[in-house]
């Protein structure tokens, strides 16, 4: 739920008499803190084809070297499968520069013109595929109302795990979702400077809740890390980038694509609304699955928090964020519809990928490599 929480500042923190002592303490701990922060940054993932190989090779070098975009990489980008591993790992590597970045990668690559040009080739292919694979239209209320009714015979991942899923499958699912949930709500923050008035205020209220209402231990990303630790997974940011297949990377890449382009702000709002509307019922099933498999309440809390919070968030998103945006910019209705439909498309592709492997005659991993057994 949306809370009205204000984090109290430490008493006397701004008093001049205390300032030198505070600065000295911070300085003394700076080396250890910097080392810990550096250790939390992921390494570059292994390439999966010619495009990602070119991107990883560029990022391994010096941004000031003037190497430039290889012509063959641009040609390979135009030929790449818009839903395939090579394109989505390359796009993910480009986007991650705007989040936590990669260990030993020059921060100057974030706005390097040659890399941005290659990223634009990848984005054009991905966006064209999303538009081609969704029906489109401008009936925002219609597509949102469709999400409010779940099929009676639904057979998605949350249903599978609740009914008869095994612990190894639950752990795989959590590893998949860590690609997004360890930076939960970060991509949606890009919408804040692109909105105005009621839409902006409402989105910030939802984001405030996503980030724990000012309490770091309540941040949804932190709650997800707790869940990972409870099921014996590495909760380090980016630990499973390399194991995540294209269907999972495509979901997070869609968020970054919509978020980093002001022209696609309507699509980002549509995506966020769709995600909040559909989260609560699934979260309730996941919570039941975790309890059935013996996961402690520290791990379950991530999902129980979403059952409560997202039931309120979806109303705020529909009424105030989507409604506020379209009241001022009605021409963005087709983009909002695209965001809703693209979210459904990619989630369906992800579920099909996972369940096809889990339900095979000989079940196999849905990741690119099996997870190690928990200690």
UniProtKB/TrEMBL annotation:
<dbReference type="Pfam" id="PF14518">
    <property type="entry name" value="Haem_oxygenas_2"/>
</dbReference>
<feature type="compositionally biased region" description="Polar residues">
    <location>
        <begin position="1"/>
        <end position="10"/>
    </location>
</feature>
<feature type="region of interest" description="Disordered">
    <location>
        <begin position="1"/>
        <end position="25"/>
    </location>
</feature>
<dbReference type="InterPro" id="IPR016084">
    <property type="entry name" value="Haem_Oase-like_multi-hlx"/>
</dbReference>
<feature type="compositionally biased region" description="Low complexity">
    <location>
        <begin position="11"/>
        <end position="25"/>
    </location>
</feature>
<protein>
    <recommendedName>
        <fullName>Heme oxygenase-like protein</fullName>
    </recommendedName>
</protein>
